[in-house]
């Protein structure tokens, strides 16, 4: 499974890097009250050399599935010249990766986002570790820590819905009758469908307002399931079903690069 290459590379990440963000509860909440994700106002010192150790195998993997080879070469060259740094892969408004990285390389937005997901997770996960407990109410459709879009949904033990971010490992609660992409609260917009073999606990939540979807795992029936990331990346058949039904997702997976729309 191609994702194993990525997950294995992550295990090599040095645990003490980067230095965690040491903002207290007040400093975090002041940003959240303004609707700002922490990464927008923080500047983690992430070593390009460490990130490169993750980008290398990932670029090989993407080249192996035939995704955007020439643009990937331009990306690698620009990285080597120091023109692109880890912050070039950070999320911005409605996207992952800065626009100049796309202009410089010709990579698609999905491919740039996949590079970000594959190379920043270990750094950002540790970076926000000390801020996670400070999270209170957060009602936006992007990660309160890094600003990336939600990538997966967990229905927790108490039946509440939690959105998961794959870029930093963040998670936040949200209403079950709300589309995190377009903000719709119109229950008539929402459809929930399951795979033909009806694996218990797995579903697709889709919005007919914006045609976005998120996969959803009910942990009350799948108490021994893996993390949101492992469950998401391990269920591409559900993404195929959603795509065939005409829906899109904001956090791309390898599937989008193997079979561009
Ligand atoms: Zn995040
Ligand atoms: Zn929507």
Molecular structure report:
- The protein folds into 2 domains: 3-127, no CATH class; 148-258, Alpha-Beta Complex (FdhE-like fold), CATH 3.90.1670.10.
- Helix content is 36%, strand content 12%.
- The chain has helices spanning 2-10, 25-33, 48-64, 69-80, 99-105, 109-127, 228-233, 236-244, 254-258; strands spanning 91-92, 95-96, 152-155, 161-164, 171-174, 190-193, 202-207, 213-218.
- The chain has a 6-stranded mixed sheet. The chain has a two-stranded antiparallel sheet with strand order 1-2.
- Helix 1 (2-10) runs antiparallel to helix 3 (48-64) and helix 3 packs antiparallel against helix 6.
- One zinc ion is lined by residues 143, 145-146, 148, 165, 167-168, 170.
Task: List strands and helices in order, with pairings.
Layout: H1 2-10, H2 25-33, H3 48-64, H4 69-80, E1 91-92, E2 95-96, H5 99-105, H6 109-127, E3 152-155, E4 161-164, E5 171-174, E6 190-193, E7 202-207, E8 213-218, H7 228-233, H8 236-244, H9 254-258
Parallel strand pairs: 3-8
Antiparallel strand pairs: 1-2, 3-4, 4-5, 6-7, 7-8
The structure holds zinc ion (ZN) (2 copies).
